[in-house]
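User: Look at the shape:
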Amino acid sequence: MWPVLFSVFGAPIQSYGASKVLAAVISGIILGRSFQRMGLRRQTAHWLVLWATVWGFVGAKVYFLIDSRTSIGWSSLVGSGFVWYGGLIGGTVAVMVFSRRHGLRIGAVAGVIAAPLSLAYGIGRIGCLLAGDDTYGRPIDLPWAMAFPNGSLTVDVPVHPTQLYEVAGAFLIAALLWTLQRRVGAITVFGTYLGLSGVALLLVEFIRINDPVLFGLTEAQVLSIASILIGLVMILIARKRARRTEAVIRTTVSMGFGAHDRI
């Protein structure tokens, strides 16, 4: 664990916060390049990431307060306690509003934002590991198991470092999405992101110690299944539209050749 990286004039720079800043910066750089290839300004991508990050944190905190039913006080507002899916909702709303105000096609934006979003999640989870976030898994006897004697929830026995599992999964998903966005449509890319990220969290939850809320599944797993289903629906809709477009093109071409033959 390395909760405090260093100090600046006596002010501690925490690994948790630093990881979130690093995630936003790297995502902004990558998204800026994608925007430039689309003929858009890089600065627009940077502002988009900024607003998505701010409102993502707001959504993550609000979800945490509602979910844990914590009494709202200064400590609960500024302290730890953020839920990823709340952040995803808040960030998504921010992206939609920003895109509408700046005349951006939300479908195209969704396609290029998926890979940076997954990469940012992985970087953020590194900060969670360094800070001793209590999202680690069950006790296990493996070479890479870790103990968290000074974590937010003290664990003196080796457990699954599930944060690292999520980091690896997020980076792999980001690499796959980066490849896909050059080959398939934007909606398919974002649907793939929702599906794969949902699968990753669904699986890692099986080795965490969380209380079930529905049919033996934890809350995170229920939300993961919802994410998977939404992703699949988006992919199916995108494929249906692609088939319709292909059918229209074939019909137009065949009509063109028919007219030429009659002449």
Observations:
- Residues 239 and 245 are 10 Å apart (CA to CA).
